[in-house]
Amino acid sequence: MKSVLVTGGTGYIGSHTVIQLIEAGFEVVIIDNLSNSKEVVLDRVESITGVRPIFYPYDIRNFDALRELFDQYDFESVIHFAGLKAVGESTEIPLKYYDNNVSGTVTLCEAMAEAGCKNIVFSSSATVYGDPASVPILENFPTSTTNPYGSSKLMVENILQDLQASDPEWTVFLLRYFNPIGAHKSGTIGEDPRDIPNNLLPYVTQVAVGKLEQLAIFGDDYPTKDGTGVRDYIHVEDLASAHVKAAQQASNFKGTNIYNLGTGRGYSVLDIVKTFEEVTGQSVNYKISERRPGDIAECWADPSLVAKELGWKAHRELSEMLEDAWRWQSNNPNGYDS
Ligand code: NAD
Ligand code: WQD
Question: What spacing in Å lies between the alpha carbon of 82 and ligand 1's midpoint?
Answer without folding.
Answer: 5
